[in-house]
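Example S7 (C-alpha cells).
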C-alpha cells in the first residue's frame, strides 16, 4: 500500500518532531489517552498470557506501563521511532520497579516498518495511534505478523479519514497540510493480505473543542503531529495563509467553539496457529460502525 505521492511521509521529519515534542507530549495527548483507555478496556475481554509484548510506537511509555502492570510476568519491549520518546519512557522505570518484580521495559529505537526483532519472538503486539505514521501499511502488518508467535494477538488503533477534517477543509491551497489516513475497510484488507485471521474493526469519533485555530495548531505541535508529507509547503507559511485558515475554519464553529474531529479505527486480529492460507475466508473480517 506504499504510495509515492504528496502524502508520502518524511520519516526523518517525523522522528525529529516527536523527539522535540516528547517532554510536553502527555499534557496535550488527550485523544491518545482516551484511545489507550478504550484499548485497555477491550483487552479485558481477551484471555491471553503473553510472555513478550511489543508496544509498537510506544510514545512516552504510558501504554508500556499499562501492559507491564496488567501482565506482570511479561517482558515488554517499548519501541519508538524517536529517541526523545524513549527517554520519557525510561522515566517510568523507577516506578515500575517499585510496583513490579519483573524487569522494566526494554527500549528499542526503530521503525515499525522494519522491526529489528526475530521471527516468532513476540506473544502480543500492541500499537496505540502509531500506524498512521507508516508509509506502507502492508509492510507494517507483514512485520507484525513475522515477529508474532502463532496464536498471538495484534491489538491496535489508528486514525481514519475523517481525522482533522475541519483543518483539511480549511487549508486547501495546493499543498498538503494533513496526512492521508487509511479507511477501516482498507485496513481490514491489509490485515488479511498479511495473513491475520478473524480481524475485527470498528470506528469511534472523538471531538476536541478550541477557542481558536491557534489552539488546534498548538496542541498538534505539542504532540509532535507536524506536517511531514512530501507535498507540504517548504519554508514558513505567511500571514496570508494563517488569515485564510482562520477565516475558513470559522464556518465550523458551533456553540462558540471550534471542533477538531478525530476518527479512530480500533482493530484486533490473531496470527493463526498454522501459516497455511488454505483456510482463508473461513473467518471473515468483521466491521462495526457505531452511531
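Recovered sequence:
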Amino acid at each position: 500500500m506504499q504510495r509515492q505521492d504528496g502524502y508520502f511521509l518524511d520519516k526523518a521529519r517525523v522522528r525529529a518532531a516527536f523527539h522535540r515534542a516528547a517532554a510536553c507530549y502527555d499534557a496535550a495527548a488527550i485523544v491518545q489517552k482516551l484511545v489507550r483507555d478504550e484499548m485497555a478496556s477491550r483487552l479485558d475481554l481477551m484471555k491471553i498470557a503473553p510472555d513478550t509484548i511489543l508496544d509498537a510506537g510506544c510514545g512516552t511509555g504510558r501504554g508500556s506501563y499499562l501492559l507491564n502492570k496488567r501482565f506482570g510476568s511479561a517482558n515488554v519491549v517499548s519501541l519508538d521511532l524517536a529517541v526523545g520518546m524513549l527517554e520519557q519512557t525510561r522515566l517510568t522505570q523507577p516506578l515500575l520497579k517499585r510496583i513490579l518484580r519483573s524487569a522494566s521495559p526494554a527500549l528499542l529505537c526503530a521503525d515499525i516498518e522494519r522491526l529489528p526483532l526475530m521471527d516468532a519472538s513476540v506473544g502480543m503486539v500492541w500499537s496505540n495511534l502509531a500506524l498512521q505514521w507508516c508509509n506502507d501499511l502492508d509492510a507494517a502488518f507483514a512485520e507484525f505478523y513475522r515477529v508474532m508467535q502463532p496464536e498471538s494477538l495484534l491489538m491496535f488503533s489508528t486514525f481514519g479519514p475523517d481525522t482533522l477534517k475541519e483543518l483539511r477543509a480549511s487549508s486547501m491551497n495546493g499543498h498538503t497540510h494533513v496526512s492521508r489516513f487509511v479507511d477501516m475497510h482498507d485496513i481490514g484488507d491489509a490485515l488479511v493480505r498479511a495473513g491475520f485471521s478473524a480481524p475485527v474493526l470498528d470506528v469511534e469519533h472523538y471531538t476536541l473543542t478550541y477557542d481558536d485555530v491557534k489552539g488546534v495548531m498548538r496542541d498538534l505541535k505539542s504532540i509532535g503531529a507536524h506536517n511531514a508529507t512530501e507535498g507540504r509547503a517548504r519554508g514558513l507559511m505567511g500571514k496570508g495563509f494563517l488569515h485564510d485558515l482562520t477565516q475558513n475554519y470559522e464556518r465550523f464553529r458551533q456553540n462558540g467553539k471550534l471542533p477538531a474531529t478525530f476518527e479512530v479505527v480500533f482493530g484486533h486480529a490473531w496470527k493463526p496457529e498454522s501459516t497455511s492460507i488454505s483456510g482463508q475466508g473461513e473467518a471473515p473480517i468483521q466491521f462495526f460502525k457505531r452511531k
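Notes on this example. The chain has a mean pLDDT of 86.
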